[in-house]
Amino acid sequence: MTAFLNILLSFALVFGGIVSQIDFLAHPDKYNAKTLEVSDLPEPVTEPETDGFIQLSEVNMHYLVYGNAGPALILVHGNGGSADSLREAAEYLANDYTVYVPESRCHGKSGDPGEISYSLMAKDLSEFIGALGLEKPVVMGHSDGAINAICLAAEYPDAPGAIISCGANSHPKTFKPYFPVGVAVKNIFENDKLNDMMLTLPDLTPEYLGKVSCPAYIVSGQNDIMWVSDTLYIAGNIPGSDMAVLRGEGHSSYMSQNGKKAYTLATQWLNEKFGDV
User: Fold this and answer.
1) What pLDDT digit, counting tens, does each position of 80-101 carry?
2) Centroid of chain to Cα 86
3) Could you tell me the domains of the chain?
4) CB of 208 closer than 8 Å to CB of 175
């Protein structure tokens, strides 16, 4: 009976997700549909100011720093990524911010303490912010990094000044079906704890999301790997948050695949929210 109910729930979620994609086309204002323009951008800052490590309680974290003139902004990469995944975004954002690009535990050149979860990575981010003495940085995350930003704000509310969450899902069941199937098949041939995490976590309940108190911008692409209804759910349960669904964009097309669009997305919202840097 439990298995049957789970199947029914899965079908209901898929049906609801499909309906939300149709609803997005019919009522774009409901999702704050946006198109990112990338004209008249500053030249990118091509070389990092710092390439180093910092020892946290459980991991020796590798990080890069781009720029040195503006407020602190932390870019957090996604599952299986590294600092290089968001290099172009960092290069453009360094015109306005001092951009820190840490590599999460079990990723890139950072250490692997054996365990990984979104809560553990949020703890690492909180320690990273404290160790470097950053004062209320903006935390902009992509994919798993977007979930990390939400978890940081929920579990360590004094750490971030604002979060920009790009492509977060609230639960594995809110993925479009093709994505977890692909991850599960890949895991059959080479089991990986990073894949296991995506297939079992997160579980962002309304109560958990309600703990986020800093300004939050919840963003996804129209053609993302989760349904647009999940973006609506996350934003709807974070008090006072803003949201946008980006027309024509996928999961990575406006972040790791296009630093110009990442720059436009971040600076437009931050300037509207806090004024020009």
Assistant:
1) 999 999 999 999 999 999 999 9
2) 12
3) 27-270 (3.40.50.1820)
4) no
Tokens 């979060």 belong to which residue?
163
Cβ-contact 255, 221 below 8 angstroms: no
Beta carbons within 10 angstroms of residue 207's beta carbon: 9
Residue 77 C-beta-side C-alpha neighbours within 13 Å: 27
- Which tokens sit at 265? 């997305």
Full-prediction pTM beyond 0.90? Answer: yes
- Answer whether 269's CB lies under 8 Å from 276's CB: no
HSE-CB at 230 with a 13 A cutoff on CA atoms is: 30
For residues 148 and 41, what is the distance between their CA atoms, to the nearest angstrom?
Answer: 28
Locate 230 and state its tokens: 């999940």
For 34, the token pair is 């946006």
Give the type of residue at 30.
Answer: K
What's the length of the chain? 277
pLDDT exceeds 80 at position 111: yes
